[in-house]
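tokens incoming
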């Protein structure tokens, strides 16, 4: 069913209209509609460069629960040319086992609040001899009907660089992704942003002292996997943590002439860090390739992405069942607004 891009209708209304002709899927029945689903939410884009602080409107609400016992961790949401939403994500039928995360689930819906229908998994590590785990997909509209999925893959326990790293798969229909040979330099959890003729690939890592970092690679010719520059650190956590780093899931949103970097910061509980898993910090900069460690706000979300739908912004969240609890297993979202500062 083709869903027109309509403004002035609530998400609940769009979901109801679309469900009249939507085919059934493999997902279990949806939770009750979020309390904000009937609200007409829109964002009046500022026309001048100014500083803003993002904030959530209401609580995160689950809109999709994977079938069986599978959880949804790092994920990607994109809207196809027919208006349907496509969700891809890390999953496993456990309470949280990264070594068993070997496929990317795929689900579609006419609206962010559903109804969601599950499709065959988008990628499977069993189809590639050098892929035992698949982590953190990010799907990018390259234009002209081409979509690219950037993701991290590797062999469990291997420290050999050729066996671990960022890879790319392309698709014409958002369903059948074909792997592209080669590696893109960087760490885990890739995210790609286009700024004019520059393509910036954000990922996560750590320095020799175990300070978590966000690093960026750059190219002007994304078709050429070998053209990406070596990653450069653009944000460093001043507190050391793990050898692999404590920062996750970078996501950058251009807004009113600024670039807002959303980053999940994990770590052991402490008096200063009450939320050790679902804590997303937001940083602001006029330069998308340079940030200072000075968060402007934080949100209770894990592996957060920011999506825009019909003139409004939404924040997403997912995670291991052991960390987020059974009631939040799956995809949760909440409206996101911007307050001038």
């Amino acid at each position: 069913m083709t869903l027109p891009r309509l403004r002035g209708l609530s998400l609940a209304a769009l979901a109801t209209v679309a469900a009249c002709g939507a085919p059934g899927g493999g997902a279990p029945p949806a939770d009750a509609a979020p309390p904000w689903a009937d609200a007409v939410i829109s964002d009046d884009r500022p026309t001048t460069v100014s500083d803003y602080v993002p904030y959530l409107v209401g609580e995160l609400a689950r809109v999709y629960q994977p079938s069986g016992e599978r959880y949804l961790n790092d994920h990607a949401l994109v809207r196809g040319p027919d208006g349907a939403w496509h969700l891809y994500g890390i999953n496993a039928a456990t309470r949280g086992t990264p070594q068993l995360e070997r496929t990317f689930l795929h689900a579609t819906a006419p609206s962010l609040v559903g109804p969601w229908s599950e499709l065959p998994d988008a990628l499977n590590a069993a189809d590639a001899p050098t892929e035992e785990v698949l982590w953190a997909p990010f799907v990018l509209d390259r234009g002209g009907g081409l979509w690219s999925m950037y993701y991290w893959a590797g062999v469990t326990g291997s420290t050999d660089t050729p066996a671990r790293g960022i890879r790319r798969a392309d698709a014409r229909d958002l369903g059948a992704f074909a792997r592209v040979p080669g590696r893109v330099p960087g760490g885990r959890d890739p995210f790609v942003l286009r700024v004019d003729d520059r393509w910036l690939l954000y990922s996560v890592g750590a320095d020799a002292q175990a300070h978590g970092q966000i690093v960026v690679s750059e190219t002007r010719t994304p078709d050429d996997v070998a053209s990406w520059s070596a990653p450069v650190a653009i944000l460093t956590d001043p507190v050391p943590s793990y050898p692999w780093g404590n920062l996750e899931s970078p996501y950058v949103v251009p807004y009113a002439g600024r670039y807002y970097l959303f980053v999940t910061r994990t770590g052991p509980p402490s008096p200063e860090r009450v939320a050790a898993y679902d804590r997303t910090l937001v940083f602001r900069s006029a330069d998308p390739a340079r940030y200072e460690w000075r968060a402007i706000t934080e949100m209770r979300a894990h592996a957060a992405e920011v999506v825009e739908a019909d003139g409004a912004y939404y924040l997403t969240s997912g995670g291991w069942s052991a960390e987020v609890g059974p009631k939040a297993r799956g995809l949760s979202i909440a409206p996101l607004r911007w307050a001038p500062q």
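note: The longest helix spans residues 11-19.
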